[in-house]
Amino acid sequence: MIDLFFSWYFIELPKQIKHVWVNYLWFFEKYFAIRELFHNYAAPWKGLSFERESVGFDFGEMFYVVFSNVFSRFMGMLIRTVALAIGLLIMIMVFLAGIVAFLVWAMFLFALVFAFFKGFQLLFSLPGK
User: Cystine design at 45: which of 52, 75, 114, 121 (Cβ 3.0–4.6 Å)?
Assistant: First the structure.
């Protein structure tokens, strides 16, 4: 019975904790579309791009088209930067939470054994000492 507990506690349980941890990381990577945001980082916001409509040289229209396209790309980069920052921050927090979960799991058995022996020590200690 003891060997089943130790095989479950030290073999199966870490696999389950890792599986849950990886699932959370996968979910937040997909939820915030981290990979897609990196691939389309400099793309125009919502695909808005402007083209010249007239034939010939018109400095005002060229300035308008260039400025509008640069502004659209800047807005896309700004919004994607905010989304990336939030997504990466949450992924870092989930990563750290997974490390904490493993540490808590590792320390729990030692805390249980310590509490068991401390309970016996308190149970058998003489009153008034």
Answer: 75
